[in-house]
Amino acid sequence: MKRGKALLAIFSAGLLLTACGNPSKKGVEYLEKGEYDQAVEQFEQAIEKNKNTGDAWRGIGIVKWEQKDYKGARNAFRKALDNNAEKTGTIYNLIGNCDLKLGKAKEALNYYNLGLEQDDVSKKMKKEMKYNIIVAYEKMEDWESAEVKLEEYLESYPNDKAAKKEAEFLETR
């Protein structure tokens, strides 16, 4: 749930929750409590009422992600973008993560690269996406590209133990 709390904080910060009867605000409250069915219900009401539609879809995406429904999460995040949700590194990273989980490494790679282009990307998220790019290349069995990206990654993050293990793995390829 630690990851969920971080996602929720990012989501909540992005919402404009000014109206008292805002279904998205209620959805976030349910999401915070882990009451996912009620959260989705509220987000769907927001969509029906055409209130914060992009954010409501993003909320549904977070619920689906928390429930490990990666296909549903991916679809909801893409609908969020289609409905004017803010294009952030976070949302692109999440779509990329969904794609990786669904075995769509090439698509994931595209979303990680889009995420890295966004202005809001924190150092921590940038590191995560750069690492995920390596994983995507490995899943595509493009060992050469994975190795090149890993070398670049290790130049920026020389103390990353997981990356060092990954380098050992790639040397055997």
Topology, pairings included?
Blueprint: H1 2-14, H2 23-33, H3 36-48, H4 53-66, H5 70-82, H6 89-101, H7 105-116, H8 123-139, H9 143-156, H10 161-171
Helix pairs in contact: 1-2, 1-4, 2-3, 2-4, 3-4, 4-5, 5-6, 6-7, 6-8, 7-8, 8-9, 9-10
Written overview of the protein:
There is one protein chain. With 173 residues, this protein is mostly helical. It contains ten helices and no strands. It has helices at residues 2-14, 23-33, 36-48, 53-66, 70-82, 89-101, 105-116, 123-139, 143-156, 161-171. Helix 2 packs parallel to helix 4 (53-66). It is elongated, with a radius of gyration of 17 Å. The termini are far apart.
Mean pLDDT: 87
- What radius of gyration results from the CA coordinates? 17 Å
Helix/strand/pairing class, anyone? mainly alpha
| Topology order in helix (H) and strand (E) letters | HHHHHHHHHH
N-to-C CA distance? 35 Å
Uncertain runs? 12-20
Q: Strand percentage, roughly? A: under 5%
Q: What general form does the structure show?
A: elongated
Proportion of residues in helical segments: over 70%
**Oligomer description:** single chain
Count every beta strand, where a strand is a DSSP E run of 2 or more residues: 0
Largest sheet: none
How many H/I helical runs?
A: 10
